[in-house]
Amino acid sequence: MAKIHEVAKAAGVSISTVSYALSGKRSISAETRRRIEAAAHELDYRPNAGARMLAGRRTQIFALTEPFRADTHAPTHMAFVLATSIAARKYEYDILLLTEEEASTGMRRVASSGLADGAIVLDVAPDDERVAVARRIALPTVFIGVPDDHEGLVCVDLDFEAAAAMAVDRLAELGHRSIGFVGHPPTAYERSAFPPRVRRGLEQRAADRAVACATRTPEAEGPRRTAVREAVRELIEGGATALVLHCDDTSHAIVLDELAVLGRRVPEDVSVVSVGAAFDTTAFASPIDTVPLVPSASCELAVELAMRLVEGEQVPAGVRLIPPGYHEHGSTAPPPRRPSG
Amino acid sequence: MAKIHEVAKAAGVSISTVSYALSGKRSISAETRRRIEAAAHELDYRPNAGARMLAGRRTQIFALTEPFRADTHAPTHMAFVLATSIAARKYEYDILLLTEEEASTGMRRVASSGLADGAIVLDVAPDDERVAVARRIALPTVFIGVPDDHEGLVCVDLDFEAAAAMAVDRLAELGHRSIGFVGHPPTAYERSAFPPRVRRGLEQRAADRAVACATRTPEAEGPRRTAVREAVRELIEGGATALVLHCDDTSHAIVLDELAVLGRRVPEDVSVVSVGAAFDTTAFASPIDTVPLVPSASCELAVELAMRLVEGEQVPAGVRLIPPGYHEHGSTAPPPRRPSG
DNA sequence: TTGAAAGCGATACCAG
DNA sequence: CTGGTATCGCTTTCAA
Predict the structure, then answer these.
(1) Does B44 sit within 8 Å of A114, measured CB to CB?
(2) Over the stretch B77-105, which tens digit does the pLDDT of each residue have?
(3) Cβ of B114 and A75 within 8 Å?
């Protein structure tokens, strides 16, 4: 824990010169800078975090609030945390974790203690209590996810509706006239903000293109696998020649397995497209086309917006929807000439 | 962001009195304390984090380093992060996240910048690079998990060997003479520190009690489900009347499913015990006895040790193994009179 | 029981 | 291009 004073002495300059040389906030002669950097490196000097917070205007810390709901998909959540952390480090920012009950009170706490320069809100619920908190505190806040009431907030998210529509477009263009949807369990459509958007996007685009569309949201309670299998069977028997999936990876695997059990090949007999998944859809028995949820895209944008807010830039409130992208992996094809089976 | 000065003025006292009243570090008359607390509450005052770090000796922050390995079990990992955060908050400490590549360089960074008072190391690998870092920096560090080379380190972990032995004891006492073990995929026994400890504890205790013991570590690559199913079939056909599981929740479900497929009832035909799992083993088709890995136990102890180190207490280096506990859920019984099937 | 004031270690303004 | 120094807001020692 070397101090700036020691670096200054070692380099034979004043502490203000050291500060400026290291921050680059004013020009320093090459020779002086070299000596200072050498001394700083030698002493493994880094500005004291507390002193810097006090003297400067920045803490270089973002609070990340994550409620850890029971129905949170852990791997996806981890991917978002990781992506946020990596994005923040690019601006030399650290991430302070605010979990569970602390998610709301913690936001107030870091705001009034000046521990963080801003907050990033993960895993947003439709009626998220952090919305009210964000409005009351003077802490730059960015939501990753869109709560029902987002008036005046800065939000970032994948355009889930467009993602679902993109899947429908793909299938419709291949000639499919009847598609099936396998979604999350029913509770997800009450507790989370995005599953309904996927379903809505799907149904609207299907209607627009006159494509028949049956949806299933298999229960997670009890034998999930059975519920998913039944859903697949019903959809296929109902005439669907393509399936759109918006569910966890386990369910994806079950869907593929059940198609195999039913003797349907992918994509010859049935086309399959995954929507809004953050996991690798090429690792299944057969790789699946995907319109993915890309954590780094959302998190990088969120961090960038947070940085701009911290720097006092005028950032208009509103929802930034990230346009989806279609990734082919060979799981789609024109429907079979006549209904298979 | 009220300041101490404003609180002092509002309460009609000096700032030092406010500081002492709020920190409780010296006795204050009841009346004065009341006025100060009222003023602080009224102004939503909290000491400025930077100023406090600088003037006090504490940052009130622990760094949590988590590498996010590819084979990390996300739900378990999340449970540890959450448990650490909750444990830290009891001491009014916050958690700063150091992920991936930042895990090592980040430790150095927070040490020399004085951003954190200590570090807690999660998801420890046998040859963890953070071991060397921890030895070189002057930051109180506690490992949750035990690296191969832990000389001079403070480590906390479940006593996995004892946990496995406890499962063997239970089964042996019920009369089982032949047990099967379904473990993690092979790579886990190279990359992680604890799976080998479970297997070792199991095999040693089985040998001690003259119980036959066959182990399987089904591949995760490709159709994991198939590998697990085969493992179960082989073990049962090999004469095992009980299974000990140390694997993820999906594999647990597959094991139960395969037993059903084989027509074996739990516990009448086959007893099942889960070891070292952090998830709920009562949520399966049939609830499973468990010797669980309890994140809060490890994390609370780790945080307590970190606090003691921060406070300058002499904490002897060494590995603290948390004794396991057996939780009955009705999945064990004496073996059937004659080999079933 | 309370108050005044000396730091804590940077940043950044004001000079030169 | 470089240096002196006021300042950030709090904790804690020293006095009263």
Answers:
(1) no
(2) 999 999 999 999 999 999 999 997 788 89
(3) no
Count helices and strands (H / E) in chain A. 13, 11
Residue bearing tokens 């507790």 = A191
Kindly state the tokens that stand for B185.
């995929």
> Would you say the C-beta of A53 is within 7 Å of strand D?
no
Question: Which of B45, B46, B69, B252 is the best residue to mutate to test the A interface, defined by the most A CB atoms within 10 Å of its own CB?
Answer: B46
- Inter-chain residue contact B78 with A77, CB threshold 8 Å: yes
Q: Which protein residue lies nearest to nucleotide C6, measured between its Cα and the C1' atom?
A: B55
User: pLDDT grade, residue B70 (50/70/90)?
Assistant: confident
User: What is the least distance, in Å, from the CA of B58 to any CA of chain A?
Assistant: 10
* pTM for this model (two decimals): 0.94
Provide mean pLDDT across the span A180-205: 94
Q: What is the pLDDT of residues A210-247, one digit of tens each?
A: 999 999 999 866 665 789 999 999 999 999 999 999 99
Mean pLDDT, range B19-48, rounded to an integer: 94
Beta strands B94-99; A94-99: pairing state: antiparallel
Helices (H), chain A: 4-11, 15-23, 30-42, 49-55, 74-89, 102-113, 130-136, 160-174, 188-191, 195-208, 224-237, 249-261, 295-310
Q: How far is it, in rounded angstroms, from Cα A96 to Cα A241?
A: 48
B49 touches strand C (CB under 7 A): no
